[in-house]
């Protein structure tokens, strides 16, 4: 399964949970890595996940840690409207000194990502710092910041 197919299945499929093998397949992770991440996320033993369904939210949160918002949006294409408005990407033109541009490009190469993806991840700290004030001023900011962890389950939607 391609990454784009996995993204579409995860964010358009509407499943409440997945068997461990399916969740690992969507993330393109080995089972042991997924069990370890789930154990840390839910503070339970790794072996509990062998027979327990993996909640959609857990897979989605791990996916967002693995894939950029831009990759998710691109894979969803015309159906990207399922994403919160503030998750959707937009363009911003900035002027930076060339040494900073060189550092951004080097960091992106080292991370195996694009400059956009690298900056988006790098700016997470700024988002955390500004988040409380922005949550009060911008409608939907808190939901976008907490996405996908704050997304209601399919039963709640």
Features:
mainly alpha; globular; two-stranded antiparallel sheet; 157 residues
As a percent range, the share of helical residues equals 55-70%
The count of helical stretches stands at 9
The count of DSSP E runs of length 2 or more, i.e. the number of strands, is 2
Structural class comes to mainly alpha
Radius of gyration: 17 Å
Q: Strand count, sense and closure of the main sheet? A: 2 strands, antiparallel
- End-to-end CA span: 28 Å
Report low-confidence residues grouped into runs of 5 or more.
none
Shape: globular
Portion in strands: under 5%
Describe the strand arrangement of the main beta sheet, using strand numbers.
1-2
What is the number of domains? 1
Mean pLDDT: 90
What is the gist of this entry?
With 157 residues, the protein is mostly helical.
